[in-house]
Amino acid sequence: MTVASQEDAISALEQDTPLVYDPLDPAVKSEPYPYYAELRKNSPVQWLPSLQAYGVATYDLVDKLLKDGKLFSSSMFWPALLGEFDPVPEVPPMISMDPPGHIHLRKLANKAFVPSKIKTLTDRTYEVANALIDDIVAEHGTEGEIDWATEFCALYPVTVIAQVLGVPTARRADFKIWVDNVLAAANRAAYGPERLAEIQESSDSIRKFFEELYDERAKDLQNDLISDFIQAEIDGVRMSRIEVIQMSILLLIGGVETTTNLLGTVLIELKRHPETYARVRQDPSLIPGLIEEVLRYNPPVQIIFRHAMEDTELGGVKIPKGSTVMPLLASANRDETRYPDPDTFDIDRKINSPLMSFGQGPHFCLGNNLSRMEAKSALEVAFSRFAILDPVSDDVEWLDSYFARGPHHLKTRFKIA
Ligand code: HEM
Questions:
Q1: How do residues 284-331 score in pLDDT, each as one tens digit?
Q2: Taking the CA of residue 66 as centre, how many other CA atoms within 13 Å lie in the half-sphere pointing to its CB?
Q3: What is the CATH number for 134?
């Protein structure tokens, strides 16, 4: 399907037929980049009837709107994403808050994510990556075929974040199911009662789990993030119990799927660029450049959401108060005015404009250092332990999503070194 839709898009471009960007169109979900290019060229701010929102495609406009949190509010982010399936509806998570509440929570949470804290977690990430590869060998032997997306990428970030939060690794499988189900609420309009009941059950379970964990830690503090949040204080104010629970769930939801997808896409881009793969294997010091280029070229979060607080105008288009506005982060990352030759995958690229992959402005991703470090450790371990790690096909089964990008499955041939 991917190959067909890529061909359709290319042939439309060749015939000069304008591509119509509809985020829900399967061809767009499969290969959105030609559509983004068309938007940047002809319609940088475009009304999208299927989502009842304005899509914003160029770097400068995305940057401008993300930095103006007053005019473009985040308050509808969580309600739009999770609707009635928000596990903690009493308080918004910080990703869905505006100043001043956002600033207060962000200051508290920042303490846990400063680079020095992240550095202390590095050894744990190597251990987690090695243990997962040991599991693969225990199950499949020293060579064969695995699903790299589900057997490594999906398990690694959830294990790291579970450990950081202070959750026993044994609960990892539950965690992954809960996060996947709660995030699936984004497509709730398309689901029937059975699937919705599953989502509700996961939402309830995740909440119950963190309520119990909070109560345990409040009595007996440990060296983990939940305990840090319980004690953290800014200007004499601490987070309430319900705020700590919401924050923990946000970290789980924000940190799991994104990094999982990044790792899956890295292997896809290496498959598509074999010379780069050979170089990175020869020289692991190229791994950070590889991660940055995958983040730019094919980022895990394609789109985020904002809400216009006043009648305004963007790129000459009138935006009425109350409209949903969708900055197309992945399109901004391919903006030719910021990144020369943007459709070329180049790990040696000198990046002069900050990537949009983690957003910009007040809500800039709190976990950006953590996810970069996690990805680096995982790839170092994978390249040293596998002599062969090679997706079997060029054809990719992408997630069925317009905002999250990563492989659904990735059948991969492997051989231990
Ligand atoms: C490659 C991996 C990741 C990507 C692509 C990513 C992407 C993003 C983006 C685009 C935003 C901005 C949302 C907005 O402006 O509305 C964001 C915010 C956030 N991310 Fe990430 N993220 C990643 C990993 C992580 C990790 C590992 C964590 C934590 C464990 C995390 C926690 C958060 C939090 C808490 C926010 C909200 C910050 C705020 O509202 O101030 N993210 N992320």
A1: 999 999 999 999 999 999 999 999 999 999 999 999 999 999 999 999
A2: 28
A3: 1.10.630.10
